[in-house]
Each structure stands twice: as C-alpha cells, then as structure tokens.
Amino acid sequence: MSSNNIDTTESSASPTAASSTAEDAGAETETETVTDAEATTDDDRRELAAQVELLADENRRLREEYVRARQSRYRATAIGLAAIGIVAALGSIAFPDAREVLVALGATGLFGALLTYYLTPSRFVAADVGERVYTASTANVAAIGDELGLRDERVYLPGETAPARLYVPQHADYSLPDERAGPIVVDDDARGLLLEATGAELFRPFERALTGDLAADPTPLAAQLTDGLVEQFELARSAESDVDAGDGRATIAVSDSAFGPIDRFDHPIPSFLAVGFAAGLERPIRLEIAPGDDRADWLITCRWGLETDPEDEPAAAGDAESTADAETTAQ
C-alpha cells in the first residue's frame, strides 16, 4: 500500500521536474542568445568607431595634402620669379647696352619671388565650410525677421562708422533710420532692423587693395566691384555689369557662386555689391535679386535715388514749413 503511494508520488513529480528542467534550459538558451546579440552589437560599434576614426584620419590627410599642394604652387611661382631675376641680373653683365632694363627686371623678379615665398598662405578654408557657417547665421537672422513680421526688402544705408549697414523695414511706407539707430529700430516711421552688413567686412579690404580711389560714378564703380568680386575674393566665377545711371540702376549678372544660392538673407555677393554702391555713391541702395537666364545664374539689381533719402528729408521738411507759413499768411 505504501509502495503504491510512493510510486504514485514519484510519477506525479516527474512531469514537474521535467518541466522545470525544460524551463531552465530555455532560460539558459535565451540568456546565451542575448549575450551573443550584445557581443555582436559591441563588435559592430567597435567596427563603426574604427571606420569613423579611419575616415577622420583620411580627411585630415587629404586636407594636409591640399594645403601642401597650394603652398607648392606658390613656391614654384616664387622659384620661377627668382630664376627670371637671376637670369636678368646676369644678362645685365653680358649686355651692357641693356643693363638698366635688365637690372630693373632682375630686381623686380627677385623682389616678387621674396614676396610670393614669404607671403604664401599657411591655411586654406574650403568654400563649403564657409557656406555652412553662413547658412546657419543667415537662417537665424531670417527666422527673427519672419517672427517680427518684417518685409522682404533690403536697403543698404551708407554711414560714417561703417561703409554701409543693412536696413530691413517692417512697413511698406517707411523712412530711413539714422545710422546710429539699431539693431532694433522702434521709431514708428522706420520700424525694423538695422544690422551690420556682411559685405561691409569684405568692402574694407577691397578698398585698401584698390590702386586708386573708389569711383564715385556708377559705371566705373560697377567695374571695380565686379573685378573685386571675381578676382580678389573669388566669390563667383564671372560677374558682368549693366549700368543705367539715368534710371538709377545697376544690374550685375553673376555665375557660379562660391556660397550657393545668393537670394538668401544678406548673402556675401549681393551684400558686397550693395555696400560698395552705397559707399561709392553715398546714397541708400535698394537691393533686388532674381534668378538669371542662360547667360547667368543670378541677376542682382542695385537701385539708388530712393524717395526717402535721409539727405532729402531736411529739405523736404523746410519746404513743408515754408508751404505752411505761406498758407497761414494767405489766410
């Protein structure tokens, strides 16, 4: 009797033990699977980190090679100038009749070689890096302008402390603010933003590099500005101007901008041109930008002769007072 009970108990306990053993085996299998997955993930992360580090090293190496290539180009030019100078100097000894010309040529070549060698830039910043920096800044300012409800209108005002500043009005009917106002102008008739123009920082070295004075006539001024835009700063591949002084307009056709689309807020290319016209003509410049055609990528139009010119306001106020006095006398 007791033997039967014992057998029954053992047989009833056997399925429970088997089930427990199966559960333990399943748990161990799941643990091993999770461990293997974690190990695989760690391996993937280490592999990705190694690839990122390898790419970073490769980018650093390419930048260094680019800098060395640019420097070697300058140094090759310096060696060529020095060779010309030495040959001319030796030629002045062999050819006494042309000594003065050869001595001058030799001195010029050697002097140019020294300048080229010692003034070789040691750092170059890629254009796409500058464009990314500009894009972030202009996006922030444009967002502020949209939040304030400002108009999509750009006016560059000549000044004394800066070549020109950028004024963005809030209303369609506005008066030009004083140069010392800003950056937020709260006057009812001139409400808006008055900001430092991007082109002002480019205009200063441009003006210093001029061989003569800054032109005061629109046509030669446009030629100076387009030349500086392409040759000095290399901000565009080409820039051609069309000036109508009688209409108070200068249109510049620009191709291959180094800083991407130029219809963004205070882009360096149109900003430099507008600042240059404002400083040279000493008049406010209204800026307009439109897509180009088959001949150019963009058309930049600078207009002067605004009706709200600050220089005309005192005269207009005097005329208004005179008219009021005349009306009072007539009455």
Automatic annotation (TrEMBL):
<keyword id="KW-0812">Transmembrane</keyword>
<dbReference type="Pfam" id="PF25939">
    <property type="entry name" value="DUF7982"/>
</dbReference>
<feature type="transmembrane region" description="Helical">
    <location>
        <begin position="101"/>
        <end position="119"/>
    </location>
</feature>
<feature type="compositionally biased region" description="Acidic residues">
    <location>
        <begin position="25"/>
        <end position="41"/>
    </location>
</feature>
<feature type="region of interest" description="Disordered">
    <location>
        <begin position="307"/>
        <end position="331"/>
    </location>
</feature>
<keyword id="KW-1133">Transmembrane helix</keyword>
<feature type="coiled-coil region">
    <location>
        <begin position="45"/>
        <end position="72"/>
    </location>
</feature>
<feature type="compositionally biased region" description="Low complexity">
    <location>
        <begin position="7"/>
        <end position="24"/>
    </location>
</feature>
<feature type="domain" description="DUF7982">
    <location>
        <begin position="46"/>
        <end position="304"/>
    </location>
</feature>
<keyword id="KW-0472">Membrane</keyword>
<keyword id="KW-0175">Coiled coil</keyword>
<feature type="compositionally biased region" description="Low complexity">
    <location>
        <begin position="315"/>
        <end position="331"/>
    </location>
</feature>
<dbReference type="InterPro" id="IPR058288">
    <property type="entry name" value="DUF7982"/>
</dbReference>
<feature type="region of interest" description="Disordered">
    <location>
        <begin position="1"/>
        <end position="43"/>
    </location>
</feature>
<feature type="transmembrane region" description="Helical">
    <location>
        <begin position="76"/>
        <end position="95"/>
    </location>
</feature>
<protein>
    <recommendedName>
        <fullName>DUF7982 domain-containing protein</fullName>
    </recommendedName>
</protein>
